[in-house]
């Protein structure tokens, strides 16, 4: 009887270890995917707007937006977002990604 319990416990621990490893891999893949998407949006926006006066004027507002985690939205930043989205309608970045891209200019 003890042998069956021992094997059952060993099997249960092996399954739990496999589930934890799989969960870690899925979580890691999700985080890496999110970082890659942010980098792509930043790269797309910053390569197109290096000398754009509207976007460059919004750097201070973009910094305030990022620092406040999105609660401060300056007029220059709003104008830059509208300008960027008109110039590149296929851009898939959200406001925080675009603010980060503006700061990288």
Automatic annotation (TrEMBL):
Alphabetical keyword list: Signal
Signal sequence, start to end: 1-21
Source organism superkingdom: Bacteria
InterPro entries, alphabetized: CHP02448
Pfam short name (any one): DUF2388
Protein name: Holliday junction resolvasome, helicase subunit
Source species: Pseudomonas guineae
Phylogenetic classification of the source organism: Bacteria, Pseudomonadati, Pseudomonadota, Gammaproteobacteria, Pseudomonadales
């Amino acid at each position: 009887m003890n042998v069956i319990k021992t094997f059952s416990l060993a099997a249960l621990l092996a399954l739990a270890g496999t589930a934890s490893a799989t969960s870690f891999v899925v979580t890691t893949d999700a985080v890496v995917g999110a970082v890659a998407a942010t980098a792509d949006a930043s790269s797309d926006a910053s390569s197109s707007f290096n000398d754009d006066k509207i976007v460059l004027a919004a750097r201070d507002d973009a910094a305030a937006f990022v620092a406040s985690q999105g609660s401060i939205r300056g007029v220059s930043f709003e104008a830059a977002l509208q300008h960027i989205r008109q110039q590149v309608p296929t851009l898939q970045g959200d406001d925080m990604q675009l603010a980060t891209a503006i700061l990288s200019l």
